[in-house]
GUN4-like domain-containing protein (Synechococcus elongatus), 239 residues
Amino acid sequence: MTSSLSSPGLDLEQLRQRLRSKSDRPRRQAITQLLSLGEPGIEVLKDYLQDCRDRGFDWVAGTIFRELLALQDEAIALYLAEAFPFGLLYLPSEKGIDYQPIQDALIEGDWQEADRLTTVKLCELAGTAAKTRKWLYYTEVLNFPRLDLETIDKLWRVYSEDKFGFSVQRELWLSVDRVWEQLWPRIGWKQGNIWTRYPGAFTWSVEAPRGHLPLTNQLRGARVMAALLEHPAFSEPQP
């Protein structure tokens, strides 16, 4: 791996600080610039991942993790496999649900599979009946453990550059005063009077509108989604 330290305007310490900026744009730019520096920049990115072990993993860490994997460098892949064998996030569940398959799909950038698995796991969380029918009643959502919804939401936010997740959708919903017909086009679920058709018309990448994923019972109306967005996991401060 070659170094490009002579590139004008690129200083390792400045870029290290920009990774911790309060604004998203300079943080994204810093990741790109550090990657362009080769090995010295990679070391700064690895240091950021290690620092997150104590303070918690955020979307910057998730983006770094995915970008480093995308380099397809054998040494980097080995480092990540040894340091983070299951990915960045510990996945607690009050009901003993295994959310690792969602993490694996998100790391790989398989957004459609991650979305499908999210529905599967929500149905599993709801119980045997929902698991069999493969969709949810809004009343089942009301009984979801806060911990599990927070786990799923964090997965989506960390690996999507903070663009996707239930809490993101709630933020956008509140910004339009809970008016669904204003939310749908904003998150790319509807254009005019035409619903976005599943799966081909959805955007399965981070280039999608903010809040585009995950799909929450999109074809079954708003009651399930409302129950999720009003759930204490997202509507009340964390204890």
In short: The domain at 100-235 is CATH 1.10.10.1770 (Arc Repressor Mutant, subunit A). The two ends are 45 Å apart (CA to CA). Strands lie at 190-191, 194-195.
